[in-house]
């Protein structure tokens, strides 16, 4: 059975001057269960973002792991990424789909039920419950969905729902049990003592969650 690309998404950005180590980290995760990688780089010059995306795609393509670009449709098209992820302030999903074409993936962050109802009519591949729990990697959160919020979104969504924000091996099973079809993680892997082991654990939990 084909595993969807959004089952276990690594959201990532390198530390300055550590690109080589970062690429090794991503490659490690990509061989141990991650099903897609989302590059999220804020407030960086376009040339630097292009460099990162190009290097990252060169690592992921041989492994057949899709590269998703956060909030930069032009960059996604330039490097021929597998798709893009946009937020509520990043433009019209219909226009984004028109730019990307029908062959690219497109995801959208959801921060309220009215946003979800609007998203139901949009040409998306998944929506992200943002955020499920509080997280130090994003401070401007409007909503903390919690388990009950993930359930509400999953019941009303026309698209697969993934959870993002504060998700780790200790709560992944519950997130999946409440209707999520996948998770996106940052700290759970970037701060893991052993990223390979954590990848395998998270992948097993997400796979098991969609079978229950």
TrEMBL record:
Mg(2+) binds at residues 71, 90. One of its GO terms (biological process) is thiamine biosynthetic process. One of its GO terms (cellular component) is cytoplasm. Binds 1 Mg(2+) ion per subunit. It is an enzyme of class 2 (transferase). It catalyses: 4-methyl-5-(2-phosphooxyethyl)-thiazole + 4-amino-2-methyl-5-(diphosphooxymethyl)pyrimidine + H(+) = thiamine phosphate + diphosphate; 2-(2-carboxy-4-methylthiazol-5-yl)ethyl phosphate + 4-amino-2-methyl-5-(diphosphooxymethyl)pyrimidine + 2 H(+) = thiamine phosphate + CO2 + diphosphate; 2-[(2R,5Z)-2-carboxy-4-methylthiazol-5(2H)-ylidene]ethyl phosphate + 4-amino-2-methyl-5-(diphosphooxymethyl)pyrimidine + 2 H(+) = thiamine phosphate + CO2 + diphosphate. InterPro entries: Aldolase_TIM (IPR013785), ThiamineP_synth_sf (IPR036206), ThiamineP_synth_TenI (IPR022998), TMP_synthase (IPR034291). CDD domains: TMP_TenI (cd00564). 4-amino-2-methyl-5-(diphosphooxymethyl)pyrimidine binds at residues 38-42, 70, 109, 138. This is Thiamine-phosphate synthase. It comes from Legionella geestiana.
């Amino acid at each position: 059975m084909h595993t969807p690309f959004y089952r276990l998404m690594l959201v990532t950005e390198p530390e300055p001057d550590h690109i080589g180590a970062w690429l090794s980290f991503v490659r490690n995760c990509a061989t141990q269960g991650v099903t897609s990688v989302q590059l999220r780089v804020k407030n960086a010059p376009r040339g630097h973002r292009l460099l990162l995306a190009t290097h990252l795609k060169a690592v992921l393509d041989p492994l057949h792991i899709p590269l998703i670009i956060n909030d930069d449709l032009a960059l996604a098209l330039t490097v021929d990424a597998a798709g893009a992820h946009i937020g509520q302030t990043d433009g019209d999903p219909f226009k984004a789909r028109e730019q990307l074409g029908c062959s690219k993936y497109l995801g959208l962050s959801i921060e309220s039920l009215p946003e979800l109802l609007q998203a139901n009519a949009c040409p998306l591949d998944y929506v992200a419950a943002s955020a499920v729990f509080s997280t130090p990697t994003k401070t401007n959160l409007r909503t903390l969905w919690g388990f009950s919020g993930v359930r509400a979104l999953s019941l009303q969504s026309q698209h697969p729902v993934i959870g993002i924000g504060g998700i780790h091996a200790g709560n992944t099973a519950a997130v999946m049990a409440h209707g999520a079809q996948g998770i996106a993680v940052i700290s759970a892997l970037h701060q893991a003592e052993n990223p390979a082991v954590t990848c395998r654990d998270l992948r097993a939990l997400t796979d098991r969650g969609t079978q229950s």
